[in-house]
Amino acid sequence: MAALAAEGTARGLATTRACALWGLDAQLVRVEVDVAPGLPSMHVVGLADAAIREARERVRSAVRNSGFEFPLRRITVNLAPADRRKEGTGFDLAIAVGVLRASGQLQSTADPLLVAELALDGSLRPVRGCLPRVAAAAARGVDEVVVSRENASEAAAVDTLAVRAARTLREVVAHLDSTAPIVGEPAAPLGEDTSGGEVDFADIAGQASARRALEIAAAGGHNVLLVGPPGTGKTLLARAFPGILPAFTPRERFEASVVHSVAGLLGPDRPLLAARPYRAPHHTLSAYALVGGASPPRPGEVSLAHRGALFLDELPEYPAAALEALREPLEDGRITISRAGAAATYPARTILVAAMNPCACGFFGDAERECRCLPEQVARYRARISGPLLDRIDLRVGVPRVQAAALRSVSAEPSHAIRERVEGARRAARARGVLANAELPLSALRRWSRLSDQTHALLELAVAKDRLSSRGYHRVIRVARTIADLESSAEIAELHLAEALSLRREL
Ligand SMILES: [Zn+2]
Prior knowledge:
The chain is of the alpha/beta class. The chain has helices spanning about 50-55, 55-65, 90-100, 130-140, 150-155, 170-175, 210-220, 235-240, 250-260, 285-290, 300-305, 320-325, 325-330, 375-385, 385-390, 405-410, 415-430, 440-450, 455-465, 470-485, 495-505; strands spanning about 10-20, 25-35, 40-45, 75-80, 115, 115-120, 125, 145-150, 160-165, 225, 280, 290-295, 295-300, 310, 335-340, 340-345, 350-355, 395-400. It has two domains: about 10-175, Ribosomal Protein S5, domain 2; about 200-415, P-loop containing nucleotide triphosphate hydrolases (Rossmann fold, 3-Layer(aba) Sandwich). The longest helix has 17 residues, at about 415-430.
């Protein structure tokens, strides 16, 4: 071990590199460590949160328990730039290495990105958000990163820099001073896209309208609401939905994986998501859990479903605050949450698949059982889905009780056949510069969705008759664009628009 620089008067200054994460926003940080004469103390400055300030205790113990000396002097740690908020435990390793360097116990000038939490015994622990931190560092030209073993495969998903996985602080020091270099991790194998539904559409009898609506939803990224009495297979249809989503493109897979990394949901055996996410949170969840939080920043279910699907069963049972909070992500494909002076933005480009009963008792309009609700009770039940939320649900479809005769027919189309048409429609959308028609900005929508005079007249009629909002107006054209794409039609015909309008109307 290198001797401590002479006790008492010597002053040491050193820097290391770390990466701060706020929401999904990763930024390289210079960790400056100043060891100066004075009463033994350690201060962390630079807009650090409580978890970072607690790094003092972890770093002190980890350094001592690794066989090094913790300088009994005045230590100041600055995280630069100081004007950005920083949170979490991912700075521990960079601070510890900085302390060793500033106190003369580590001579090397090697300057990799250091991303790990320290345990009191000096072992390295994984951190949330390793993937976006490493990706951001690689994009800024960093060529080496040191992480814990648990984070190794996640970091290695970024193949443009060398990933060194260490178990302990001692191993990191031995690597940096070249006494025992750590060999690089092999690039993480991304594996096959295993997207698929647990249920195949071939096993679902009848329900032609619901199947059609789900196909359109998958093809264009549109939101869908299934309405029907209990026991008619709404949940089954929703569970089959992932099986008709198009293949996960590398870009989408990376985007979705970043959100899961930040939530701490990736692991050694799962460096990137293998399949499009399918989230089905229970209706007891809070608005915070559904859309995420800002302080500390955490993505919610709607963001964990980014580039996949979000299934909300029994939609009216969700807390009103949670449902209202869905409006922004369903409209913009992302959500910004501000709380206590902090703000965080997460992507949330997901397909909402919602299901509900037609009334509180569940049997309004059912052929077999009588509804026990008064008309005003039915109205009150449906009003739990506010107008603005409903406006963002493009496709509303009834899921009635299937007659016995239909249950016997077993010739339903399998998921893979539907998925092929979905892929075709997605190819058409990509040719317009988006991943799905639901993302078409207005300028592109105008360009790619010219309507004949006759079709336009039909739309104007609907505006008057259905009191279509301006949002609804554009959403219905996007859906018509998808319906035309499913038939490989360059033009939106009257029939396509008529179907889009009828799917928007039914409830
Ligand atoms: Zn009822």
